[in-house]
């Protein structure tokens, strides 16, 4: 039965006979393997868009019922025709963009990108800047496609993805789905190169990320993508200036709040401590700011929760080493946090150079007096 319903949904708004329209209104019950039907080229633009929107909504329902692969195998070609054909219809764009994201999530990110999915998503964001559903669906698609590599990230940057993501963050501050996916776009695109990272930073990304992290403290997607973005911004040629901006904007405090709120989310914990580690690098003042924000007990909790061999614990241990470097008060706090054995092993495994006093406190032999 699914085959007939699915074929009907595909043809219902994209290619449907007059008889089917008259009989079903939307023509959603064509039999599989039946005669290919004529396209809707004689009806008004409004009518064809309405039928296409109905068909796309039905395909989304099939996906939700667990038939994603079947929808993709039969619907991809239709979808890449319907979206540009009905570029001015919100009712078509929103479900169509959602379906492209579904297709992308099936391991077809590169295929969706190569067939123009990125272009379609950015076009919809440009066309409908105030429509919440299109912005949510478009940002989700673009965030998904730009995770497939630097070629897509660079193409997105060249097509104004940064400007569109920043506009979405401004226009839809209270919508967590838009915020999370717009941050996802900036996170992915900022990995394309230093020039892109600078453009993202210059557009005010730090402030937008901090606002989103504060506004949606219980949303793990917003928290993860916000922390990943901040981490990306704190790396590269101009990382010192960008790290200073993160500290000044209050990013350290909101990142630590996320670490406390999601103690068992290993991926998020890794991203949080990766960001805070980047903040600390090369600056005693920034390391002290992280310490003053009460990072030590939170980092120690992460180490105990996940164990030395995980990336989350490794990043947290790196922060503990950074804040303890040549700061006696911070060093005492770190040594009292209950993770001394893990610190000792981490320093040995990573071959880190730490201060003589810290090395002695950890029970290590003489080492160089610089930290790298």
Please describe what this structure looks like.
The chain has 372 residues and is mainly alpha-helical. It has 22 helices and no strands. Helix 6 runs antiparallel to helix 7 and helix 19 crosses helix 21. The longest helix has 25 residues. The protein is elongated and about 75 Å long. The termini are far apart. The C terminus is likely disordered.
Q: Which band does the percent of strand residues land in? A: under 5%
The chain-level structural class is mainly alpha
Shape: elongated
Number of strands: 0
What composes the largest sheet? none
User: Which spans have pLDDT < 50 for at least 5 consecutive residues?
Assistant: 15-43, 367-372
Order of helices and strands: HHHHHHHHHHHHHHHHHHHHHH
Cα separation of the termini: 64 Å
Radius of gyration, Cα only, in angstroms? 25 Å
Topology readout:
Elements lengths: L1 H13 L3 H7 L20 H20 L3 H18 L4 H25 L2 H11 L4 H14 L4 H9 L2 H11 L4 H14 L4 H9 L2 H11 L4 H14 L5 H10 L2 H11 L4 H15 L3 H9 L2 H12 L4 H14 L3 H8 L4 H11 L5 H7 L10
Helix pairs in contact: 1-3, 1-4, 3-4, 3-5, 4-5, 5-6, 5-7, 6-7, 7-10, 9-10, 10-12, 10-13, 12-13, 12-15, 13-16, 15-16, 16-19, 17-19, 18-19, 19-20, 19-21
């Amino acid at each position: 039965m699914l085959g007939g319903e699915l074929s009907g949904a595909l043809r219902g708004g994209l290619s449907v006979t007059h008889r089917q329209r008259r009989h079903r209104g939307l023509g959603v019950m064509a039999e599989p393997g039946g005669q290919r039907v004529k396209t809707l080229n004689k009806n008004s633009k409004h009518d064809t868009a309405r039928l296409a929107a109905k068909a796309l909504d039905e395909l989304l329902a099939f996906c939700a019922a667990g038939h994603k692969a079947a929808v993709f195998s039969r619907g991809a070609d239709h979808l890449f025709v319907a979206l540009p054909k009905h570029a001015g219809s919100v009712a078509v764009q929103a479900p169509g963009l959602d379906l492209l994201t579904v297709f992308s999530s099936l391991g077809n990110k590169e295929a969706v990108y190569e067939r123009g999915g990125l272009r379609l998503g950015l076009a919809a964001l440009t066309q409908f800047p105030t429509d919440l559903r299109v912005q949510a669906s478009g940002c989700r698609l673009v965030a998904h496609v730009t995770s497939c590599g630097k070629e897509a990230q660079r193409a997105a940057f060249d097509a104004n993805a940064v400007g569109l993501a920043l506009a979405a963050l401004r226009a839809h501050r209270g919508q967590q789905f838009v915020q999370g996916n717009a941050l996802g776009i900036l996170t992915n695109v900022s990995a394309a190169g230093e020039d892109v990272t600078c453009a993202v930073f210059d557009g005010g990304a730090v402030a937008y990320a901090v606002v989103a992290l504060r506004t949606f403290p219980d949303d793990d997607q917003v928290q993860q993508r916000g922390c990943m973005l901040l981490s990306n911004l704190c790396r590269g040629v101009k990382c010192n200036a960008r790290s200073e901006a993160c500290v000044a904007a209050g990013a350290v405090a909101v990142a630590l709040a996320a670490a406390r709120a999601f103690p068992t989310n290993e991926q998020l914990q890794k991203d949080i401590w990766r960001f805070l580690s980047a903040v600390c690098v090369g600056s005693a003042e920034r390391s002290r700011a992280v310490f003053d924000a009460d990072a030590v007990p939170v980092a120690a909790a992460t180490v105990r929760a996940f164990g030395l061999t995980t990336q989350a614990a490794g990043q947290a241990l790196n922060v503990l080493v950074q804040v303890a470097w040549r700061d006696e008060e911070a060093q005492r706090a770190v040594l009292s946090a209950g993770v001394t054995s893990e610190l000792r092993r981490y320093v040995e495994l990573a071959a880190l150079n730490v201060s003589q006093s810290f090395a002695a406190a950890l029970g290590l032999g003489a080492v160089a007096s610089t930290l790298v």
